[in-house]
Every structure is written in structure tokens, then in C-alpha cells.
Design goal:
The chain is α+β, with helices and mostly antiparallel strands. Helices cover 17% and strands 26% of the residues. The radius of gyration is 30 Å and the shape is globular.
């Protein structure tokens, strides 16, 4: 990043940040980088080598909103700081590790020692390798930083990658250059190397006849288009104005931008999402499967279906080319009674990939059959994350699938899919009276007929449910569970959910709870799951929920080094979120929160220093 007043900022998207300022800013800046008065001793006033004073000074420059924007930020290790013992210092100080920085005889940095002193880089290298148990990737980053600093100051750097085993793999149509042009030719600026005033850099340079196009080396003939100062690849489509009235495309044959009049669909608004202007839906529809299992369609029709095979819950059934194809299936199973079933596995197929959340593997996801820890991301198109006790699969198409790994599943679609979906969740056309439609387009005779028509596969021993002789509880039997010690808590006017009653009607959830509680004779786990479904629905809408679990009622047991929180932010407090914050909901959900100072690594709560990669 360069400005016309001389500021230059560079960042390697990982950990190496450089800021260059012109002399006009002499003694006119402040912050962690000091005051720019050529007196390094006063950069940290009155601190000296006192660690506590240095931390206090650094903390004084903390952004006002940093703890809001990054919930896992901290200023210090609070008494549990890792220590590098003498044995590790000796090991990592050798020439196979950090010692290569100071090596003077035939060392790769020998020509730089008098220009950029190696001491600070060597000391930082020892510290970083101690904290990472000698991770080779960390060593390579430290050595690369020193090499880049040396080159920036005009010093020659010899081959350091071979002796330190830090190869730089280069992508297709490029090759490694230890001292390449810092301003490579791009499709939007072929002449940039000729006008470059920066020192050489270690880089992957495009092969002859190729230039950079969006970070990839492509033949010159494959270059895209430039429109209003922004580069677009061949075939890429975009909105050419601020109101989404002009749809443009970088034409592959003409090699230029071609635009035509267009606009957003009904129910969409023009907005910038993640830096890209697009049409987004202004409302959404939700389908739910809760308990044993009670289905609520996108349009609000409620019914019970007890089949235990694999069924299409919701999927695209339209040929509209503007809609992303998807399919969500559910597999149900019996638990303690052959008269009822519960959701066991929720699977989503989208972007030619398959994602499964299963009761068998809580807090994990299967991606194309491979079991992985959370969070998981794919090409900025899809994310799978943990929010409270729920797994969330979110897509850039606006489709979200959630499952609590027990029995509560939801599919959320934008209104752009209205009338374009089908399955157990109905068609989302706003009319609940035509939701009972079978796969072949006919009106279903009953719930079993409907469910069977959307069966996509069998599993050993699966059945169609209780087509006849389904167990039914009388009102008198249900009445026993209307008290506060069971389902009655849901509708209590001054109870823990009172603030949500005007947001989400508790009546359907109360009915489902009474149904489940009666069939399972008041088994507390069944009641707790039914109430938990209402809590999740309330929290997803941002409605306030007061504490409702107690030591004797619906206790949520948490793993070691974690505790229950009614409003947990589990999505942010992860090891993965340290370097690449996951896209999390603005709302909190009840769940197990790692203890203060610990992060979730996908299976347990650990200190930040022991997080993986």
C-alpha cells in the first residue's frame, strides 16, 4: 500500500509488517512503532527492560474496540508465560536453527551483518522457536524476515533456504528467484517492472510469456479486463454501478468489459457483502426438525413423521440458473422406543462437496467422508463452525444448516429460493396449505405418505414409521407435564423465556415438548432437548433468555477446562480464530465455553501456545 504523501505499508498476509514513513513525519508519530526521533532509548518511556512496564506501555496503545472486534485478544500471559530453558536455547541457537542468522564464516547473511545487525532477529528467533517447540515453519518465517530486511537495505543475501531446509514452492507457470523484481508485471500493468524503485525481493516470478492475473501467472493472451481502476479475470461477472442496475462481464472473446441493463430480483436489495457488491435477499425462511421428530416447514406447517431412513429435508428443485444447487438430507433413528424417532445425521450437498453432522461425532464434521475438527472453511464459499452446542454450515449463497448433534436441525434459506425448493420442508412459497406435496407432485394422504415420497436411500433396518397405530397421548396424560418442572416453563409468563414470547410464539414448542414428554413418561433429557430447541430459536433471533438450567434440572455437562454459559461465544474462542477469525454470528448461544485464557482446538480447551496449525 503506497500513498502520494510517502507512506508505504507492506504485509505478507501472515506476520511480517513493514511501515515506511518519509522524514516529514520526524517526531510527529506515536504508537507501538515509537516516535520517529532517531532515539530508540525513548521509544518506550521509563520501561527499560522491565517486562511488566513494557506490557503496560503496549496496552496503552490498544484500540478502543479491540476487545469487541476480537474477543480472544489479550495483553499478557497472566503469570503463565512460557519460558525458554537453557537446553532449548542451546539447541535452537545452533547453525541448524537460529544460529544461521549470526553465522559469519560462509553464512548466508554474512554480507548483511554490518548493515542490519543480526542480534534482535536472533533473539526473536530463539523466543519464537521455544514457544513453537522448534516448528520448522516458524524458523523459515524468521529467516525470511531477516533476509527481506537485508535486501530492503541493499545487502546481498546468499542461499539460506537450502541449509535451513526452507524450500519455497512456486505455483504453476512460475519459478523461484532469490532476487526478483518487487513490482512484477500484471495484466493491469505490464510496465510496472520498468518503473519500480524498490529493491529486489525473494519471490516466485512468472515464467516468460506469463504475467500475474489475480495472484496467478497466466499467459498474456489470458489476461482479463480493467474497469474503473479494478481488475477482473476473463469471464468474471460483476455489478458496474452502485445500484446494481448494470451487470458487466469481462468478455472472453473480446477481451473487454461488456455491460447490460439488469437489476436485483424481487425481494433482493443491492448491498456490499464482504467487499463485493451483490444482490442479497431481504428476508429468509426457516424449516425445523425437533424432538422425535416434529417438522415445521418453511411456510409454517407442522407435522410429525417417524421414518428412520434417509430423507430429503430440503433441496433445490428449480432450473433457475441463478440459484446455487443444494440438498439437505436427514437420517433418523429410534432411541429407546420403536414408536418414535429422532434426527441422527444431517448432510448437506453443495458446491460439489458433502458435509455431514452426525450424533456419532459431536462437534466435528465429515467433509467428503473425512472426519475433521471445527472450524472448517472452503474457498470462502462455505464455513462450518461451532456456536454454542450447535454446528453451523453457512454458505455465501445465503443457505444455512444447523444441527445440535442430538435431534434439533434447521435449514435457513433466503427468499430468493421461494417456490424453488422441495422436500419435507415444503416449497417456501408462502402458502402452508400446499406443503403436503409428494416427490411426484401429488397431495400426500398423510405424514407417512409424504415422508416416504422424499426417501432418498435406505439404511439397514430402517422403516417408514408408524403408518398405523401411532402412539397418541391424551390431553389428560399431557397435563401431567404442564408444570414448571417440565414443559410448562416454556410458556410461563414471568419465566426465563418471557422476553422471547413476543418474538417467537412458544406454543408450538410447548406442544412438541408435551408430546415428547408424554411418550417418554417425563424423561428429563427429552424435556431438556425440547426446551433447548426454543432457547436456540430465541437466541438466533437475538431475544433475551434468562438462566433456566440448574444443578437439578437440565444440567449441561461440559468437558474439562470449560464451563456452561447461557450466552457463550464458542465460535470466536478457537485456535483457528487466532490467525483467521471465523465468520461468526452476531448472536450468542448457550454452550460450553473454554475457561479464561484457553482456546478450543477442535476437541479440547488448550493454552494458546499449544494450538496447532
Amino acid at each position: 500500500l503506497e500513498t502520494d504523501f510517502g507512506l508505504r505499508v507492506s504485509y505478507d498476509w501472515n506476520w511480517h509488517l513493514l511501515i515506511d514513513l518519509p522524514s516529514s513525519y520526524f517526531h510527529h508519530v506515536h504508537g507501538l512503532c515509537g516516535n520517529f526521533n532517531l532515539k530508540p532509548d525513548d521509544d518506550i518511556p521509563d520501561a527499560g527492560d522491565n517486562i511488566t512496564a513494557i506490557v503496560a506501555w503496549a496496552k496503552s496503545w490498544k484500540s478502543a474496540n479491540s476487545e469487541v472486534d476480537d474477543l480472544i485478544c489479550w495483553d499478557y500471559c497472566d503469570g503463565a508465560c512460557p519460558v525458554c530453558d537453557e537446553d532449548k536455547k542451546e539447541l535452537y541457537g545452533g547453525n541448524h536453527y537460529c544460529g544461521i542468522i549470526k553465522k559469519s564464516f560462509q553464512g548466508p547473511y554474512r554480507a548483511c551483518h554490518d548493515i542490519v545487525k543480526p542480534h534482535d532477529f536472533y533473539r526473536n528467533c530463539l523466543s519464537d522457536l521455544c514457544l513453537s517447540d522448534g516448528a520448522r515453519s516458524i524458523l523459515c518465517q524468521v529467516l525470511e524476515t531477516y533476509a527481506a530486511t537485508c535486501r530492503k537495505h541493499g545487502a546481498m543475501v546468499h542461499d539460506w533456504r537450502t541449509p535451513s531446509r526452507c524450500p519455497l514452492p512456486c505455483p504453476e507457470n512460475s519459478h523461484y528467484e532469490p532476487c526478483g523484481n518487487a513490482c512484477p508485471a500484471t495484466c493491469s500493468n505490464w510496465d510496472s517492472p520498468a518503473t519500480c524503485d524498490q529493491p529486489c525481493v525473494e519471490t516466485c516470478a512468472c515464467n516468460t510469456g506469463h504475467v500475474l492475473s489475480g495472484g496467478q501467472c497466466v499467459p498474456v493472451s489470458h489476461c482479463g479486463c480493467t474497469h474503473n481502476g479494478r481488475y477482473y479475470r476473463l469471464g468474471e461477472e460483476f455489478w458496474g454501478d452502485d445500484t446494481c442496475r448494470s451487470r458487466c462481464r469481462c468478455d472472453m472473446e473480446l477481451g473487454m468489459v461488456v455491460c447490460k441493463d439488469s437489476g436485483c430480483k424481487p425481494g433482493e436489495v443491492c448491498a456490499v457483502v464482504k467487499g463485493v457488491r451483490r444482490c442479497v435477499a431481504n428476508s429468509r425462511s426457516i424449516c425445523m426438525a425437533t424432538g422425535d421428530p416434529h417438522y415445521t416447514t418453511f411456510d409454517g406447517r407442522r407435522y410429525d413423521f417417524m421414518g428412520t431412513c434417509v430423507y430429503l429435508l430440503a433441496g433445490l428443485c428449480s432450473t433457475d440458473p441463478t440459484l446455487i444447487p443444494f440438498a439437505v438430507t436427514v437420517e433418523n433413528n429410534h432411541r429407546g422406543s420403536h414408536l418414535v424417532s429422532f434426527t441422527k445425521v444431517v448432510t448437506m450437498e453443495v458446491y460439489n462437496m458433502t458435509f455431514s453432522l452426525s450424533q456419532e461425532h459431536p462437534q466435528k464434521v465429515k467433509v467428503n467422508g473425512v472426519l475433521l475438527d471445527l472450524p472448517f472453511t472452503h474457498n470462502h464459499q462455505l464455513q462450518v463452525s461451532l456456536r454454542g452446542v450447535h454446528g453451523f454450515i453457512t454458505t455465501d449463497a445465503g443457505i444455512t444448516v444447523t444441527f445440535d448433534w442430538y435431534s434439533y436441525a434447521r435449514v435457513i434459506i433466503p427468499n430468493t429460493y421461494a417456490g424453488a425448493v422441495c422436500g419435507l420442508c415444503g416449497n417456501a412459497n408462502g402458502d402452508l396449505h400446499n406443503d403436503f406435496v409428494t416427490h411426484d407432485g401429488h397431495h400426500a394422504d398423510n405424514e407417512t405418505h409424504l415422508g416416504d415420497s422424499w426417501k432418498v436411500s435406505n439404511v439397514p433396518g430402517c422403516s417408514s414409521g408408524c403408518s398405523e397405530g401411532c402412539q397418541v397421548c391424551s390431553d389428560a396424560q399431557k397435563h401431567a407435564y404442564r408444570g414448571d418442572k417440565h414443559c410448562g416453563l416454556l410458556g410461563k409468563k414471568r419465566g426465563p423465556f418471557a422476553a422471547c414470547h413476543n418474538v417467537i410464539d412458544p406454543t408450538p414448542y410447548l406442544d412438541d415438548c408435551l408430546f415428547d414428554a408424554c411418550l417418554y413418561e417425563g424423561h428429563q433429557d427429552t424435556v431438556c432437548q425440547a426446551i433447548g430447541a426454543y432457547v436456540a430459536a430465541c437466541q438466533s433471533q437475538g431475544a433475551a433468555v434468562r438462566p433456566w438450567r440448574t444443578a437439578a434440572f437440565c444440567t449441561l455437562n461440559c468437558p474439562p477446562k470449560s464451563h456452561y454459559q447461557l450466552c457463550a461465544r464458542t465460535c470466536e474462542h478457537t485456535c483457528a480464530g487466532v490467525s483467521a477469525p471465523p465468520p461468526c454470528s452476531e448472536h450468542c448461544f448457550e454452550g460450553c465455553q473454554c475457561s479464561e485464557g484457553l482456546l478450543f482446538d477442535g476437541s479440547r480447551c488448550v493454552p494458546p501456545g499449544t494450538c496447532g496449525c
